[in-house]
Amino acid sequence: MKDSNYLKERNAKSIWHPMAHPADSLSNPPTIVTEGRGTRIVDVDGHEVVDAVGGLWNVNLGYSCAPVKAAIAEQLDKLPYYSIFRGTSNDCVIELGDKLQEFFEPDGLTRAFYTSGGSDSVETALRLARQYHKVRGEPGRTKYLSLKKGYHGTHFGGASVNGNANFRTAYEPLMPGCFHIPAPYTYRNPFNETDPEKLAQLCLQALEDEIAFQGANTIAAMIMEPVLGAGGVIPPHKSFMPAVRDICTRNGILLIADEVITAFGRTGSWSGSRHWGVQPDFMCTAKAITNGYFPFGAVMIAEHVVETFETDVTGRAAIGHGYTYSGHPVGAAAAIACLNETIRLNVKDNAAVRGHELFTGLTALYDDFECIGDVRGGHGLMCAVELVSDRTDKSGPDKSVPAKVQKAAYEAGAMIRVSGPNIILSPPLILTAEDVRTILDALRVGLSAV
Q1: Read out DSSP for 341-370?
Q2: CATH of 67-345, one of 3.40.640.10, 3.30.465.60, 2.30.40.10, 3.30.70.1150
Q3: Between vectors from CA 343 to CA 338 and to CA 346, what angle results, nearest 5°?
Q4: This model's pTM is above 0.85
């Protein structure tokens, strides 16, 4: 490895960082992470902290998951790459398909379409949704509905259904035919409603109104996260997603569950859809499918959609979509090992217990710090703290405040993620009670620095 002075000097001189202003990386050098073990990461200066970000929502099993590392190494020796485009396949993707079919059986999902990651999975689901209606003889169903504050990756399709201007404005005009519904975000919503159940009903009414306005026969799909993640960890009332499912079914609209974050145990259930008792028509997965060790994803497909495609005799169901790395054998091998270890460790239960401890601790911080406007979580290991300058009018903090909290918390022992006014926590699902205490103690130090 190059020495630390070289790395610090050269970081922003030859690369641009995602989700950052190029000049910011020059004036504010990033943390350079060089090692990871268990739930902890180590920077170029040897400073070790608990990773309360979990890589980027994806390192569910931590940084020392030997079975996944071994599977990658073994597969590289055996078959480092081959395409699964028409006419060829490989042993790993077939085995993984069976394992995913079994894992997602309670969600009603029976086929996998492999991708290179989350944005690819979203793009795939959006495209297949349109094609499904064309196969069925309804080519006019081309529009998409989604939630404001929702995050669905950064491809043009995903950015078009995204509900956050940060990922849209610089790249507009985006794909036409995408319409957004108010999110069930109790802290900030256009209805000034703080009761979660009442707010859910208001958002559902807005959804029905939009469908009536657009015409149900023009809408292909509704895409939503079971718990909104990157938009600030916004859990809906338990009635919300089941009602969305019912509305979509009644109107012939497909429901795409974006579970790039929530699949494989993060909510305390094996999937976010299962957490709410819903069976979607498509489910987008990635991130934790390989524990972040290899770029890989899969769109899971419901049986009735499968039947529509597989029984087609017109040729309209031929899929003109895929990626060079769809079904990459090394990624598939990693996913097999990761899924086995995820089930063996039963990480969903630990996520539920540790998530409760973390959320309870954050609620206690709310009582001690006036700069906290809202605390959200309560569904596994995904929590957020929203910072404000004034609780009464909910005005946002100075832009320097979240950065100060992040810096002080890091120095005190925890890597946290800042997104706008939100501190977002998505640690590995193998988190210990001691790790939770470390995160909370570090946050207390960070908030005290404001």
Answers
A1: HHHHHTHHHHHHHHHHHHHHHHHHHHHH-T
A2: 3.40.640.10
A3: 120
A4: yes
